[in-house]
Amino acid sequence: MGRTLANKKEIVADLKGLLDKSSLAIVIDYEGLSVSEITDLRNRLRPTGTVCKRTKNTLMRIAVEEDTQWQPMTQYLQDSSVFLLVEEELKDAITAYEAFQKATKKTKIRGGVLEGQALSVDEIKALKDLPSKQELMARIAGGINAVATKLATGINQVPTKLATGINEVPNSLARAIQAVSQKEESGES
């Protein structure tokens, strides 16, 4: 028995909602996976905030057809597809999938989409080398802290150097007066 039109519309709406929350979509050819293996993949991806969605290519095509950010995915919609919809932790999601793929040797990445751009398998794997969100935030915080520290040090140096300069003026003036007096004394004698 097939799905009803209302049921298909509900699935498409669900897909659109998942895509709205996602930053990366990876399309995988899953032909030959058993139900327990798909469950294993979902369990591995869950801690990364990634949704493993198995749906018909036609329904995914309808879900992305009006969304320019996800339209490039249509080129990967063929045969048996599973969609990995990654919210934030790209590196962790790709690492978890690769561990699953290494264990089963039954799936392969067809491609993906990130910020409206189609990604090849190599480009998806390259995302794994990027720093995570937490690492980037730590680097930015460290950079901001370093700027503030240098600014505070520089501001503290201004009064110190000014005070040193002010203290040096009378000494320089005294030396200048002494030099002039010595010159006048030596010129008079």
UniProtKB/TrEMBL annotation:
Query: Ribonucleoprotein among the record's keywords?
Result: yes
InterPro entries named among the record's database cross-references: Ribosomal_uL10 (IPR001790), Ribosomal_uL10-like_sf (IPR043141), Ribosomal_uL10_bac (IPR022973), Ribosomal_uL10_bac_type (IPR047865), Ribosomal_uL10_CS_bac (IPR002363)
Keywords in UniProt for this one? Ribonucleoprotein, Ribosomal protein, RNA-binding, rRNA-binding
GO molecular-function term, one example from the UniProt record: large ribosomal subunit rRNA binding
An example Gene Ontology CC term for this record: large ribosomal subunit
GO BP term (any one): translation
**Where do the TM regions start and end?**
none
Q: What does this chain do?
A: Forms part of the ribosomal stalk, playing a central role in the interaction of the ribosome with GTP-bound translation factors.
Q: Subunit comment for this entry?
A: Part of the ribosomal stalk of the 50S ribosomal subunit. The N-terminus interacts with L11 and the large rRNA to form the base of the stalk. The C-terminus forms an elongated spine to which L12 dimers bind in a sequential fashion forming a multimeric L10(L12)X complex.
User: To which protein family does this belong?
Assistant: Belongs to the universal ribosomal protein uL10 family.
Which PANTHER family does this chain map to? Answer: 39S RIBOSOMAL PROTEIN L10, MITOCHONDRIAL (PTHR11560)
Cross-referenced HAMAP family, in alphabetical order? Ribosomal_uL10
What is this protein's record name?
Large ribosomal subunit protein uL10
Q: Which organism is it from?
A: Calothrix parasitica NIES-267
